[in-house]
């Protein structure tokens, strides 16, 4: 009987739960023990990663969305022996174009600090979906329902985004099977940012989702569930085959030693 694997989910900015991943969790829970880790008391991605490492299981698959994906990369770099597989969704490797950094400063952090976030949050949420879905009521309601984080938590996470630094070259050290998922209409983190991660991650697969913005798990739930599940199953089968070959090789070596003796 196989011991159940662990999966750690790191939600994106402002999400204090796994609300945006309910479709996927319902399916993956048959194979994994799933835990959602939210860090709100750190103002850097490195600090958030240290907290994740402290709270996570000994061995786990790591799925990070948006800011959670940035943190996941730091976790993989700092605890590679513990991360078995890495899934990065709608994220980036720390290098933000000037206009994107200014967007987070002016349209997110400034309203949070001046008490005007309630007036501008709908603009931010609309930018999270593909343009043809940006006014779809159900999507917006689900997105908003997951944003119950404290005001200070939002400020801290925004500072972590704004303060992110390029770590793309370091990703060459991440010797872990990695899946990147990205919506082609993502208005926050564009395709060149995905290309940068893909260029350095040595064992990486990239899947682009058409007609999709920053929240693939909500915009195309069935497709993302199938994609994640299939990829995880493939790499689990490969790992099982590798382990079997290693055991057989060890048995053959041991048998050979006995015959010589």
What does this 3D model show about the protein?
The chain has helices at 22-28, 45-55, 67-78, 98-114, 117-126, 137-145, 151-162, 191-200, 216-219, 221-260; strands at 5-10, 32-36, 60-65, 83-89, 178-183, 204-209. It has a 6-stranded parallel beta sheet, sandwiched between helices. It is globular and about 75 Å long. The chain has one domain (5-257): Rossmann fold (3-Layer(aba) Sandwich), CATH 3.40.50.1820. α1 packs parallel to α10 (221-260). It is an alpha/beta fold and 261 residues long. 51% of the residues lie in helices and 14% in strands.
Strand order of the largest sheet: 2-1-3-4-5-6
Helix and strand sequence: EHEHEHEHHHHEHEHH
Write down the domain tally.
Answer: 1
The total strand number stands at: 6
Q: What is the level-2 CATH architecture name?
A: 3-Layer(aba) Sandwich
Q: Give me the CATH superfamily.
A: Alpha/Beta hydrolase fold, catalytic domain
Strand content: 5-15%
Q: Which oligomeric state applies?
A: single chain
Distance between the termini: 35 Å
Global geometry: globular
Major sheet attributes = 6 strands, parallel
Report the structural category.
alpha/beta
The CATH topology, please?
Rossmann fold
